Every structure is written in C-alpha cells, then in structure tokens.
Amino acid sequence: MTEPLQIHQPRSGSEGHSDIFDCVQCGYCSAYCKVSFISEDSPRKVIRFLQQDDIDKAVKSSFVTLCKQCQTCTWMCPQGIDVAGIMRHLVRHHFINY
Description:
mainly alpha; 6 helices
C-alpha cells in the first residue's frame, strides 16, 4: 500500500508552508545548505523535480537522505516555503513506499 505524496497544499496556521509552486528557484535554500555540496542534487533541484511532477526522482535523490534537518533552507527561503519539511516528508514517503 502506498501513501500518496501530498506536499502541494499550504499548511494553514504556520509560518512556512509546503506549496512547491511558490518556489521561484532563487537558490537560497541550496546556497546556505551545509550538505548540498556533497550531493549531486540540492534542495532547489529536489523542489524542481516536484514542480515537474517527477516524484520518483525527488524521493530517490541522494540529497533527501543527506539532509540534516537543520532548517536553514526553510529560514532562508524568501517565499516562506518549508523546504526542510518537504525533505522530511520525502524521506518518510521513501521509507514507506520503496
């Protein structure tokens, strides 16, 4: 049984949200990420995979498992996207469905 990946809906009542389509690909999340340099992907690239509806590529990205959940990407996002929350959700989705 697979759990649907639902990250397109904004979370009401929180500062950050998960609406990936608000991402303008500015790269701040990746520029300040402490681990993106050791992965072929970055937070920005993973968000782009999701914007292109390529969920498998996003879930299987090497970056998702390297993410340390330091929240820097979320704090640096000028659009207020909960990037770290999205990565956390992708990890959960990976372990449940793959």
